[in-house]
Amino acid sequence: MLMHSCTCANTLLNLPHDRYATFLTLAGAVVSDPVVVTNIHGETFTADIDAVDVWPMLTGTNTTQPRRLTPTTEASIFDVAPPPTADGATDGQETKWWKLVNLAGQSQYYEPNQQAIKANDTCLAKCQKDPPQAGRTDALVNGCPVCNLTSPCLYDILNDPGERHNLAPQYPDVVHRLTAELNKSLAWYITPHMTPEELNKTYEKFPAKHWGGYLGPCYKRKGASSTSTTVQVEV
Predict the structure, then answer these.
(1) Sign of the dihedral defined by the CA atoms of residues 153, 157, 159, 164, in that order
(2) HEC states along 75-131?
(3) 205 in helix, strand or coil?
(4) 218 in the Ramachandran plot: left (φ > 0), alpha (ψ -120 to 50) or beta?
(5) How confident is the model at residue 38 (pLDDT cuts 50, 70, 90)?
(6) Burial environment of residue 194 by CB neighbours within 10 A (0 to 12, 13 to 18, 19 or more)
(7) What Å distances lie between residue 215 and 114, 211, 234, CA to CA?
(8) Sign of the C-alpha dihedral, residues 27, 54, 47, 44?
């Protein structure tokens, strides 16, 4: 994240959510009130807004970590514990960036120079059913599952940025706490899996070479141009 005067800081934010709170705060709106949402099944419920005003961080008036918990996917969450105070103090405690992953497949490791190293993680016998995912039709894990709800992965990101050392067995209390927080965030998803019928009714797939060799949205609404609102349904 680029900061004021083009300096960098070790801060983590949820860009899609936090820009919502940031822009509304700049416009003078109140973003602390819960919202009423209706999912595709017609069910209506109230949810808190998981968003933080990060304008003070972006302008350099406050460069401390803006949020404690940051769900990054349907199966992973970051926790900055304990969050530093305004003057950077942590009450004598070591600041840790925990990352919990409860569904993942084997992937390569990378050195700081981006050199790829083939992973040798032990494959689990199986992985659990995918959690609810907005618009996704493919599985989160294909091949060798290395993290699941029964055997989750917990990483100390500041000391292990390559995510090579699973600390879940040593910190079951952290795993339990972050699993509960991740499950809470999943309840906010408005759309669950789309069936092939639902997908084909409203969306059409981009041609294989549409993005000129670059990754891009896989589907668009039928009749929309490539610059119109799209939905990501594959990885």
Answers:
(1) positive
(2) CEEEEEECCCCCCCCCCCCCCEEEEEECCEECCCEECCCCCEECCCCCCCCCCCCCC
(3) strand
(4) alpha
(5) low
(6) buried
(7) 19, 7, 11
(8) positive
Which contacts (CB < 8 Å, 24+ apart) does range 217-226 have?
219/135
31: left (phi over 0), alpha (psi -120 to 50) or beta: alpha
Query: d(Cα 110, Cα 126) in Å, to the nearest integer?
Result: 25
How many Cα neighbours within 13 Å face the side chain of 57? Answer: 21
Half-sphere exposure of 1 (CA within 13 A, CB side): 19
84 upstream amide cis, omega within 30 of 0: no
pTM of the model: 0.67
pLDDT in tens, 75-122: 899 998 765 555 555 555 567 889 999 988 888 888 877 788 888 888
The predicted pLDDT at position 166 comes to 94
